Structure formats: C-alpha cells, structure tokens
TrEMBL record:
Coiled coil: none annotated. Transmembrane segments: none annotated. Gene3D superfamilies: 3.10.450.50. SUPFAM superfamilies: NTF2-like. InterPro entries: DUF4440 (IPR027843), NTF2-like_dom_sf (IPR032710). It comes from the Bacteria. This is Nuclear transport factor 2 family protein.
Length: 129
C-alpha cells in the first residue's frame, strides 16, 4: 500500500511537471483512453484522452503560468483504485490580466497494466485555499 502511495505521489509530480513545462506530448500516458473530466464551474464533460490533453494544450497556449503549488495531498488506495485529493494555488496571466486562483482537485486513478491512469477528474474553485 505504501508503495502505491509513493508511486502516485511521483505520478502527480511528473504529470504537473510535464504540463507546467509544456511537454504535452507526455500527457497522454497519465490518462485512461476513456477519461472523464467535469469542467470547473459547469456540468459539462470532457471525455477521452485526446480531449483531455487538448484541454491542457489550450490552457498552456493561453496562459503564462508563474506559479503552481499543491498542498494537502491526500491519497486513498483501494486495490486497483486510488482517490487523490489536493488543494492548489495557481498564478497565471492571460493577455494583460493576472490571475491568482486556488481550488481543489479530485482524481480517480485506476491501476492498469501496472501503471496508474486517471479515469475521472474534477476541479472545484476554492477562494479560501
């Protein structure tokens, strides 16, 4: 169990490092081919690995991220399933507008062929992060 938690912590670190450093070609490995994301503040879904990677690419192209931090990382593992919850703070600029936002990210991971993959993702804004 502790090995799974350590693996998932590294998984989260690598994934965030990849998107923060514009290595979107690496992102598909983190997502199941049928991953679902509920878009923040809506009930709309992003479905599928390609659409998920495209959403990261769109954000990277629009925003200049100056800071991204995770805190309060919590991981619960149940055999081949893991629930990951953490709070985050992100500072970025789009055109001439600066943003300083926080939120909560919830991920459901599945262990598939000895590799963790995100099968479900949700972000909730949190003004008190």
């Amino acid at each position: 169990m502790n090995n799974h938690i350590r693996d998932i912590e590294q998984f989260i670190d690598r994934m965030n490092d990849d998107w923060l450093n514009d290595r979107t070609e690496n992102l598909s490995r983190y997502f199941h081919k049928q991953v679902v994301m509920i878009q923040p503040g809506t009930q709309k879904k992003i479905v599928g690995r390609e659409a998920m990677v495209d959403s990261y690419q769109e954000f990277i192209e629009e925003a200049d991220v100056s800071d991204f931090r995770i805190k309060d990382l919590r991981i619960d593992v149940f055999e081949n399933t893991a629930i990951v919850l953490y709070t985050f703070r992100i500072k970025y600029k789009v055109e001439t507008t600066n943003y300083d936002e926080g939120g909560v990210e919830i991920l459901v991971l599945n262990l598939h062929n000895e590799h963790w993959q995100i099968v479900w993702r949700n972000q909730q804004p949190d003004i008190d992060v």
